[in-house]
Amino acid sequence: MSPLESAKKHISIPDAWTLLGLPGKAEKNCRSPFRRDRKPSFSVFSNGRRYKDHTTGESGDVVDFISHATSTSKSETSKQLIQWAKGSTGMSETTVSLRPEEALKTPRKPIIPVLLPPETHELELIKQQRQLHDIDGLCIAEERGLLKIGNVYDQGECRRCWIVTDGTGRNAQARRLDGEPFGNGNNTFKAKTLRGCSTSWPIGTANLGDAQNIILTEGPPDMLAAISIGRYIRDGVIGDLGFACITGAGVKIDAEALTYYKGRNVRIVIHADDAGESACSSWWEQFKEAGATVDAFEVEGMLKGDGSPANDLNDVAFLSIETGETEPKYQDPLPDLFRFYGKEGPK
């Protein structure tokens, strides 16, 4: 028996469904994990070895299933399946509850769950969690392919999350939709970089389009805040701006990613702490060496909606629940964040 055929015997479609964090449950009559499926029109049968989508007509085995879910070639999928099988030593052929932690510790490529566009009620949850003014900025992030919804495993439980990523899928960071942290006890964390992803890839890099002027933040919440604040301050006109974020102050930027910024103007938003200052200095040099024009915007000295000091851009976007404000009050110099200057003056 070939390694691939052996892997197919060890990893069923329900196993792969669980490993990929897909929504719903693999059954003979279930909803498709690949699209909005109002009525069950998807089947997993033959002891979990075959599937069929009765609406699209697509069908296949576990390799086809994973390939469809991850948008990878069958060749790459086959390699991943073999790696998963190697990491599941001792699993019987009837086991259908393989958890991500039982798979290989270092997968060949990032394992990104099926990502769907957020629905209105999910955007409202994110807005409340980040205390943003409205969902309009989040809608723009979704339209640009930066904001998605997916299921992520944590402590053996499947959690519905909002996930910030870009067209490459090389970096993706998740936060729970219910606002709770990942982990448990004394080991909790608010954000989770999906397994196999590279934090050195600035999220948004692949989705900059033709934007000449780029606002770069530390962390996805600040990027969403930048989009939301910019849309409000500029009356919704932010099509000329690109947005990206780096998921860690100590990260050295990927060399390939830096090539996307050559000839562009990059404005780094600095967190109001020593780590933020250090990160800005490091990134500034990397972008400059890559051929970008670089400057920075400081959050230090700015305030939250309730008058307390702000540490980052998302703090500035917070509305004060105590004062009952329904409209943000953005103080100077925040509008300067969205003004870029060239030979022809302000833009």
Summary?
The chain is an alpha+beta fold and 347 residues long. The chain has helices at residues 3-10, 13-19, 62-70, 74-86, 120-130, 136-143, 220-233, 255-258, 274-289, 313-317; strands spanning 42-45, 50-53, 59-60, 147-154, 157-164, 173-176, 182-184, 187-189, 192-193, 213-218, 241-246, 265-270, 293-298, 341-342, 345-346.
Description of the structure:
With 347 residues, this protein is of the alpha+beta class. The protein has two domains: 3-102, Zinc finger, CHC2-typedomain (DNA Primase, Chain A, Alpha-Beta Complex), CATH 3.90.580.10; 120-346, no CATH class. The chain is 27% helix and 19% strand. The protein has ten helices and 15 strands. It has helices at residues 3-10, 13-19, 62-70, 74-86, 120-130, 136-143, 220-233, 255-258, 274-289, 313-317, and strands at 42-45, 50-53, 59-60, 147-154, 157-164, 173-176, 182-184, 187-189, 192-193, 213-218, 241-246, 265-270, 293-298, 341-342, 345-346. A four-stranded antiparallel β-sheet has the order 4-5-6-9. Strands 11-10-12-13 form a four-stranded parallel β-sheet. A three-stranded antiparallel β-sheet has the order 1-2-3. The longest helix is centred in the last third of the chain and has 16 residues, at 274-289. The radius of gyration is 22 Å and the shape is globular. The termini are far apart. 40% of the residues are buried. Mean pLDDT is 84; it is low at 88-109 and 343-347.
